[in-house]
Automatic annotation (TrEMBL):
SUPFAM superfamilies: Thioredoxin-like (SSF52833). This is Thioredoxin 1. PANTHER family: GEO12009P1. It comes from Desulfurobacterium pacificum. It comes from the Bacteria. Keywords: Membrane, Transmembrane, Transmembrane helix. Residues 37-142 form the Thioredoxin domain. The keyword Nucleus does not apply.
């Protein structure tokens, strides 16, 4: 049994299209990660844009600002870590920001994706962690 040339040509075109889509996806994901790393490095050391309300506690000492969305699956994985560390580190001020209810706050901080964790010290951004964060990583930053 032989496969016709037309069928072989269609299969080759199909696999070429699948390959291009796959490579485009990989380049997009890697590009997004590179952009997030670049953006987080630029944010380090800057003053907090908002120091009123519950953010006023972040003027002195260590603090953590946790940006989340209620329908975000990675946020649901990070949530127990934040709760556990907030109970464990009593001297660190934790502030949670729901970006669905408060999008202008996320815009002020330059947050493009959730979950995002900003570690602060004396009113300045010390570290910016974009994406899901493990307990060990966040613990080492505190």
């Amino acid at each position: 049994m032989t496969i016709s040339e037309t069928l072989m040509h269609v299969a080759a075109v199909f696999f070429d299209i699948v390959f291009v889509i796959f490579v485009t996806y990989i380049v997009f994901v890697i590009g997004l990660r590179v952009y997030w790393n670049f953006k987080s490095k630029r944010m380090k050391g800057k003053e907090l844009p908002v120091l009123e309300g519950e953010f006023a506690r972040l003027k002195k000492g260590k603090g953590v600002i946790y940006f989340y969305a209620p329908n975000c699956r990675p946020c649901k994985m990070v949530e127990p870590v934040i709760k556990k560390l907030s109970k464990e580190f009593k001297k660190v001020h934790f502030v949670r920001v729901n970006v669905a209810e408060n999008p202008e706050m996320a815009r002020k901080f330059g947050i493009l994706a959730t979950p995002a964790v900003i570690v602060t010290k004396d009113g300045k951004m010390e570290d910016v962690l974009l994406g899901p964060v493990t307990e060990g990583t966040l613990r080492s930053k505190l």
